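Recap from last week: sequence in, structure out.
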Amino acid sequence: MQERTLENLILEDEDYIFGGNLTINGNINIKNGNLIVSGTITFACDDASISIEGGDIVCENLGSRADIFIRDGDIWVKSLDAQDIDSDGNIEVYGDSSVCSIHALNYLVAGDNDSSSITTIQDFYVLGDNDSCTVKARDVLVVGDCHFTCCSITAKTFYYGGKLFNCTSENIG
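Predicted structure tokens:
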């Protein structure tokens, strides 16, 4: 698999498509374009500015040490490990996800979720286990166990299929 490292990525009205693993050490500014990678994308710089307007991120794995800001776009990945993500679109993870803070239209995780603070305009679905602190969503569905660490849950509907644990790891439901 190919490997490529970029210092910055600045695009307008074009897509960046790469077959392999991509590391970006600096700022990302994409307007009206998509970032599509067949392998792993790593945003390696802690204090980088990552901004995508009018485009999507699509890759196998996404790792970011910097905050990600997306307007009019989505994230579609197999696994996600990131700091904060602020998006007005969907975040769809087909495996496991671990993010500090999520703001999105919908946050959908097919595996396990270990994201601290989650705020969605619409829905938050996890097909595996969930471990979170704060959740605000219209609808919350967790198929597996729910671990909520010193949390608050705000939702119109809340369904879970496994056990419900509070911050002391006691089974409460």
